[in-house]
Structures are given as C-alpha cells and as structure tokens.
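seq/struct pair 1
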Amino acid sequence: MQRFTYLAAASLAAVTVSSFAYANDELIEMQKNPKDWVMQLGDYASTRYSSLDQINKDNVGNLQVAWTFSTGVLRGHEGGPLVIGDVMYVHTPFPNKVFALDLNDSGRIIWKYEPKQDPNVIPVMCCDTVNRGVAYGNGMIFLHQADAKLVALDAKTGEEKWTAQNGDASKGETGTSAPMVAGDKVLVGISGGEFGIQGHMTAYNMSDGTIAWRAYTSGPDDKIMMDPEKTTHLGKPVGKDSSLKTWEGDQWKLGGGATWGWLSYDPELNLVYYGSGNPGTWNPVQRPGDNRWSMTIFARDLDTGMAKWVYQMTPHDEWDYDGVNEMMLVDMEVNGEMRKTLVHPDRNGFAYTLDRVTGELLVAEKFDPAVNWATEVVMDPNSDQYGRPQVVSQYSTDQNGADVNTEGVCPAALGTKDQQPSAYSPRTGLFYVPTNHVCMDYEPFEVTYTAGQPYVGATLSMFPAPDSHGGLGNFIAWDAAKGEIAWSNPEPFSVWSGALATAGDVVFYGTLEGYLKAVDAKTGKELYRFKTASGIIGNVNTYEHNGKQYVGVFSGIGGWAGIGLAAGLTEGSEGLGAVGAYRSLSSYTNLGGQLTVFALPD
C-alpha cells in the first residue's frame, strides 16, 4: 500500500495555499494514471475515457464476475466508486454511507462513514435519494450529503476533518451532486429546483471548509458574479442587470436554476464549467421573460468565481429541460479549424459544441430525431434569434396556457438524456451518449410558493416516442463536429447509466433492467452482456490492480426513471410523470444496492 500511504501522508502536510496548490498539481498528474479512477467523470475534461486496453473488443466477451460488494442500502445508486492506489471508495444513496475497501484483501472494509441525517430530508429530494459520488483531493474524501452538508474525510481513517453547510434542507435545498476538487478549492452545487430555491455554485477552501466564493444562478450582478462589460453571452457583453431584467418582479428569488449536475475544469484556462437547471415554477405563465440565467452553461474563473462567458440554451424553459449535464472538454477540428471545444448533450434534445475559450456556438443539432418542441437553434450570428431555439407553437406550454394539456411533447421532462454522463474516445473521435426516447403530455397550473413544499405547478404523463422502435431509450455514438448520429442502439428502457470508453475500442454502459453491456466503439455491435442484481443507473468505471484490469459498476434501481420501484409509487402521474412510462420495469428487476466488479479469467 505504498502509494496510498504516500497520499494519506500528504494530508498531514501543513495547511497552506502552496501545499494545496501542490495537491492540485498532484491531482492533475493522478488523472493521467489509468490504473486509478480518481474523479467521477474520469478526468477534469469529463471524458470518461480510459487508456487501459487489457480488456478489448476481441476478448471482452470472456468477462467474468471477479467480486461483489453489497452496500446495504436500497434506492437508486448513481455515480461510481473511486480507486486510488490499493483503496476503493464506495458511496451510497441516503443515508450516504462511504466505505474504504482494501483491494489487496478481497475488498476488506478499512473504514465506514455513516452520517446521522434527519430522515425528513427524504421528502424534499426530487426524483429519489440519489448521490452522484465522492471526490478526492489532498488526502481527503469529500461527500455532499443529502442534507446539503459538505464533509471532508481523512482518506486513510474516515475521520471528519471539517464540515460546511451548503444549504437549508427545510427550504428544499439538498445535496445529490458529486463535488469536484480543483486548485485549492472544493466546488459543489445545490439541488432543489422543484422547491423554489435559488441555485448556486460554491467554492470552499479545501484547507478548512470556509467559502471562497458563491455564485447564484439568478439575481443582481454581484450575486451572480458577472461583469456587465466583460462577461459575454454569444460574444456580446451581458450588460447591467442581465438576470433581473428577464424576471417579473421578485420571481427570481424563487428562480430555481439548481446546479446539481457535473462540473469540468480546464487547468490551462483556469475555467470551471457547469450548467444550471429549470426555472421555478414549471408553470411558465407565472414567470414571463427569458428567466436568466437558468438553463445556462457557465464558464467561471476558478480563483475568483467571476463568469467569463455564459450561454442560455433554453430561454424561458417551458418543459423542465435542466441544463446540468456533463461538459466534455475536447480539442477537435470543427469546420476545418482546430478548436478547444466544450461538448454538451442537453436535456432539451440538442447537443451543443462550443468554443470553451470564448463561448462561441459552433454546433447545435438534435441528437434524437423525435425532438419536436423546437425546429432548430439559429446559428446565424447576425440574426436577432442567434443561439435561440425556435419553439413550435403546438408544443409550447406557455403559448397554450395554464390548465391546458399540451400533448405529444418530445422529449419528456427527463430530457433526451438526464444526468447519466457520456464518454468520449480519442481513438474514434466519437461521443457515446446514453439517451431517453420519451415524450410527454404537460399541463401547467397556478401554484403558490411555501418554503419547503414542492413548487412545481404542472401535471405530466410520459410515454415512448411514437412511430419509433417502441422502446424508451437508445445508446448512441455522436459526431460532435458534424452534429450527426454515427450509430444508435435501441433499448427497451432509457439508458440511465454513465458510459465508459476504453483504448480497447470497447464502450460499456448499463441498462435499467440490470445488464452491463459492452459494445464495439466503431460499430455499436454488442460484444457482451451480464445481468446484475438490480437495475443500473450508476456509471461504469475501470482500473488496474496488480497488473489486471477490472471494470466495476453499481446496481441499484432508482433515480427518476426508477422512482416507482424505489419509492413504491403506482399512480402513472406520480414521480413527476415518470411512473406510468416505466411501470413494466418491475417485471425485469428489483431493489438492491451492489457493486459488481468484472475481469478476464486468469
């Protein structure tokens, strides 16, 4: 355990700015070591790519279960384990247990952390009691608990080093997202967009948990940390009161814009990238205007928190198309020119390619042909509609009005993809995207805000996209330079698992029925499948130990798609409309939290 001992010893170093800057340099190097899995999305660029190739497209069909670990917790298991040297760190949904497992001793439990949380937080967690994983930095493990407490644990002992309260659960502010460590800071967002919260991103000083900066999604310029002249939107300064001018009265104070998704970081540019979610309420009639900066990609300076550029994908969102999905940072050729790009497949069904330095919009195309709420995103910089989706009146819940059931909107509120992260392979130049192939009927209604109570204001029902393959999902390969689907594999249910691409030209993902699948990265041909103990909404990871490559994934049905099973809901409109669409899932899987690790036979 020489490597782990070294990392743990680093946490005992003097707590100074220089020591934490050194820790960040160390983390930058650690992400390059394919033997470990040190971040939830694999690296700062969020590519979920591994250069390991011991398991490849020629032998992946021989995979076997190497070992398993029961988490002892039901409900939805999102995220995945970290592997650092000889130790694996495993997390769970509420009550958010964390385990350190010894890979040299058959997964022996080195330590277990089990926080004491008020179970009253469970009813204010939208769409299941999930947690998307822990982060590592400077000899510590960072956990964002359901009750919105950020906890720093000693990676060697599990001892609490410090805690910070990131939100107020009594108001609906909860923690489901994975923190990200960058520089001398721990960054974490907030959940609760369905409870009228005000979304924010917060950077905590890694040394002691004090706040370095906090940037809100909506509100005055100083609170959203934007410079009216220097922060740009599609190349132009945002101007004074850029958020306030797009809300009626004080509605921005209940503006939602939660930040519960994934973060990325470019160390060379020193920029952090993330997205904000839906505005509050789901009834668009109650909040006229573009509702900035909900549904927005942010590029912020890590040190100061100031926004360099923003791009709002779905102005005046009328369908709950949260913009929190992963931002994949890849250098590639677009229109004959090499660019430092950001690739973001959004809930709204459009996949965006932007220049991550300037925020210039390069590509915006549908990554599911069923998407019908908008015809296109205008790409002409000289148009007054530049960058805006062109909404189809038939599917506009705002134009149709409150108490009117708008039928056949595609995608459904859970989006063409939700939080399940994509992967990218530099070997193929393709992005591998788990998707939902689901549409909905949507009826907004008047709703009154009460702190700690749902602030939704819409009734939904969901169903498979019509005139298609009859299933609820596809796993696709996406060409982000051209804005085209390279290949697509239909699935009976939404693909709610995070993908993994490897140098063995294999792409892994999990299914809601519980299958781990491996497909050919170039063609999509299925090469392997194995039925695990429960439905998979976790992210597939890989690592190497003692010269052997392993692939691991959480099973544990739940999340929005599996909320009916997870929470025992039966009415079709429950679970914000998801229960009806996924009712048959109970015939294919059951509850249970388990880590399954695979390897080739000796």
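seq/struct pair 2
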Amino acid sequence: MGSTHNGTKGGSAATRAVALVGPAGTGKTSLAEALLFASGTINRQGSVESGNTVGDASPEARARGSSTEINLLNFTYMDDRFALVDLPGGTGFAADGLGALQSADLAVVVIDPAPERAALAEPILRRLDELGVPHVIFVNKIDHARAGAVRELIGELQPLSREPLALRQIPIRDGEQVTGYVDLALERAYRYRPGKESEQVAIPSELASREKEERAHLLETLADFDDTLLEALLMDEQPDPALVLSDLAADTAGNKVVPVMLGSALTGGGVHRLLKLLRHEAPAPEAAAQRMGLREGGALHVFKIANGGAMGRLALGRVLGGGLHEGDELVVGDAAERTGSLFFMQGEKTTKQGAANTGDIVAVAKVDGARSGMMLGRRDARCGAAQGIDYPARNAAIAITTRDRKDDVKLSTALHRLCEEDPALEWMQDDASHETILRGINEDHLAVVVGRLQRRYGVAVDTHPPRISYRESIRKGATQRGRHKKQSGGHGQYGDCVISIRPLERGEGFRFIDKITGGVIPKQWIPAVEHGVRDAMERGPLGFPVVDVEVTLTDGSFHAVDSSELAFRIAGRTAMGDALAQAAPYLLEPIVKVTVDTPAGTASKAGSVLSARRGQILGLSPHPDWSRWERVEALLPESALHGLDAELRSLSQGLASFTAVFDHLAELAGKHAEEVVKARVAKHA
C-alpha cells in the first residue's frame, strides 16, 4: 500500500491527495484542468472563460467565472493515482475547502508572478503551517512575467513562509516572453511547447552564471537538513544528482522546504514537470493519517456534507488507513453506521464504485450521523477527533423573508441543509426582532447562498439588512397611576395600581419591587401588574424595548367582583406606558468591540475608516502572533458594521479581516437618534 517517494519511480497503490490553494484569480481551476489534460485524463483542455472546465461546473461558479465551492477531481499519471481538491480562493468561499485541506498529502499554492501581489499568499501559507501540510509554490502565468520578477517574488515571499523556499527553476526569456526554464536540480534547460511536454535544450550562455548562483543557493538550503550533502559542498565537490533529488523529495514531504516551480496553466508550460514533482515528492497517505490522529485501523475523514443532488445526502471524505467497501461499518458517535453506495467525483459527474482504496476521496451515502470535520473510524480503529477548524468571522448578515408564506417551513429545512454543507454559514431566528437572520463571511458569500436557496430548494426570498437592536432607557423618575375600568353586561373589569419608576445603572436590566401594604391589591394579582409593566417595556415611547429601569408598586385598589388578572395586567401596562413618557426617554445603540488584523503599514488607514464610522480607537499594536501584521482595536456602533469588511479589504489588497463582539449599549443622540426614531415610526405606521 505504501506510496513511494524520496526520488523513486512512483507506482504507488495508494491515492495521494493534492490540494490546489491560493488567492482568487491566480488560475487554480485552470491548473486543475491542465493537470487533467497533461495526464491524459481529458483529451481537450477547457477554460474558465469559456465555461467548459471539468471543475467549476455549478451555475454559481459559471456565472461568476470563479470557484464558489471545492472541486473534486481524479487523475492517473504514469500509474500513480491522484485525487485533486481545487479550493476556492475568494474570501467568501475559501472556507469551503479547509476541511479537505487538513487531510491532503500536499498542497500546491498557486500564485501569479507579480511581486507586489505576493502578500496575498500569506494567509494560506500561514494556514498550511498551522495544519502541518507539506506544500509547494507554483508561479502560474509565468509566460507574462516581467524581467527580474521571479527574483523579486522570492524576496517578497520568503518572509511570509516559515520554511525556506527552494527555487527549483529559473526562467528562460526571449524578449518580453518567458519561453522555458532551467531546472536547477537536474542542471538542464527546457523550452515550453504549448499543449505538449517541454523539450530539452542547451542552457543559454547568458544564464550560466545565474544558474550556478541559484543552484548553489538551492543546495545550501538542502544541506541544512543533510550532513552528507553539507560535507560535499564544504569539500567543494559536485554532489551526486541522486542525492540532490532524494533530499528534495524527503525535505518536501517532511515540510522542511517549500519548492518553487514555474509554469503556465493555459499553455501547459511546466505542467508536466509539476506532475513529476507530485509523483516523486508528494508524501504517502500514511503521513496525513498520522497527522490526523489515526494511529491504527481505517477511517474516513469527512470534510464536507453535500445535499441536494440526485443521490441525496452524501458525506465527502478521504479514506485513510485501509480501503473502504460499500456496506462497511463506520463508528459515528457511539453507534456504528453501515455505509451506502460509494461515488467517485469528477467535477459535477459521479461514478458509483464498489470500493475505495487508501487515500481515495469519495462521496459516501447513508452515513446520516456524519458531520463535516468528523473522523469516522472502523470498529478496530484507534483515532482521535479531527482538529477543529478555525473558520473566518461571519461578518455579513441579512434578514430573509419568504415571498410566499407557505414556504416558511421549506425555508428552515433548506437553511439547515445549506448550513450543514457550509460550516462558514449560520442562521438563527432572532427572538427580539422576529427576523430570520443568515450570517456568512461576506456579501458575496451570502449572495451565492440566496441563489442556491431558490435554485435547489425552490424558495424565493427577499432580503434586507437585519434590524439593529436599539434600546431605550429613562433619565429621571416618575410616578403614575394606571386604572382599567370597564362595565358591560355581567361582571365588569377593574384594576388599579400606582407605580414609581427610576433609572438604573447601564446593564442592570429590570427590577420590580412590591411595596403594597394593607392588601390594597391582593397578592394573587401583583404578578399581573408586573406582567403589564413588562408588556409596556417591550415597546417604549420611542418605539424600542426599554432597559435599565426599576419599578416599584406602591398603591392601588381592587373590586371584590370585577377585579381580575387581565384587568390588573392592563392597569400595569397603562401605568408603565404613561410613566415612561414622563421620564425623559432616550435612545441606546449597541456598541461592538472591533478587532482588525491588517498587514503592516495599513493600520492607520484602517483606524481612519473606523473613526469615520463613529468609532473610538482603543489601540494600535503589532499583531500578537503574526510578524509584519498590525492590530487595531476600537469601539464601533453596530449600525456602522455594514460594508466595513469590503472597505477594510479595499485598503489592504483584500487581506484585512475583523471580528466584532457586542460590548455595551451607549446613548445615541442628535440627528442619528432622530433618524432612527423617524424610521421606526414610519415602519409601524
């Protein structure tokens, strides 16, 4: 079963999983297509622009011209089997593939050759370091790189990587175009041939000194991990080429170095060389199994739940530690569940299989208890729980209403399924505003989800920003009598109470004190007065729930026949409503504590953005964990969060992110308060 690497000839029985990751727009889906074509899996290479790639087949991805969810693909190259996971790069969708990334054997970080965009790779490089996943960098679109770009790019990238970068190739230029590369490990030059394997050529004389310099640097990097190679270099001897290749394979698989390859997905330049790297240097699945805590036996690492297809609910996962057959038992929680059909996925196409080998990525039916992130072991397996995923903050929110009330039940079922598929999504029923709230990473993310709601589940909805939880309180005390008296045929209604109200300190909530003496209100009706008071507090004079008030019941009267619980509740509500109006009510708005993480040099701009949104800056400091990053903390009105994510990203090459946590309520006065009250009155009118 063991996959061979360390410079050997391949021929592994196990399937190795390769994740394609990187910023949006760098060409990951195009590279996936190029790998399928170069390996002979497809006979014609599609393009994202034409909308005919094997991946990105969903209507949402086709419409946007970019990935909105992971693509699962398979190919065989020289008898070695590979499962390919193409992860979305867009901020709103990148979280979809984080589960699959955990159990990948190797990640290919796809970037473009512009040095000024190198910083965009930092979040994914950091994530790979956290997960311990070996990775290589593929500089795509190299044919259009300007002179000197690769050197500059390596200079920009190295500070972002925990491991040393190992530049494996240098470009050969013909005027403005890159037409090939020199392989520093093999000391050979190759010319790109569109759609074909590159052909070997002589190393251009003008690159001889550069090749020597870069090769020396590559060997010095490898010698840090190999005393034999270090000794050869110190003795000024030419190292054995087999030793260099063996070290490259071992150091890549061991996550000690990060090889940097060059190429062009659209023309196929460098793609065959990347395939050879995957074949010789991607580690065997045993390393991923060990990293995932699988110590013995077999397991399925579930990284995504898929709903809504013709096959129903499927658990997408990677088979580790041994094969999996239809009908095998997997332990889910405390119970064993028998697997249903197994499917291999090639983009949107599924093929039923009776069994899966170690390392395969499959879709499994009928494991109803499976959830994203679970490790489902065989009965004989010894495995820990999969490491939890730190998803990005859900900074975007919308309120959803169905256009047809008959769809309300269908909506909750659909939202449950969509959130099960996408753990970066969550929904809730807001008890205070009676709104259905959907939260996601950003507005793009939510827009795609709303589209899926209609397309997959037939639920048409309208959306609007969620209502801000404004509150109101009082500045001074007041005393008020509330009397409810009604006479009609038979028993009448009679309730009478006197209350005094006063403001409490912020955050103290509500207090009700009973000071009735002499039985002027019988004990059984005092709770009804409190109920009535609470009723009135649900909507104060300004139209919002009332907080931080103490109410004392001081006096009242009753009628032996006509008094009732309802009458005293109405009396309490009347007294409280009138008292609040006399007590100088004022508006409170929710204030959140915002923590912005942003690349060095952009924190002051982020602070200006927050200040312009009525924010109070609390501090600006270096990031506690990430070198070259900064952190800004501020207090900000919740109403100012709308659109903040996009504004912060626009000033930081899309890298800044923030979290917001409720902190306190603060007085809102002046024109802002007037606008809020006016809008509330108009809504109720």
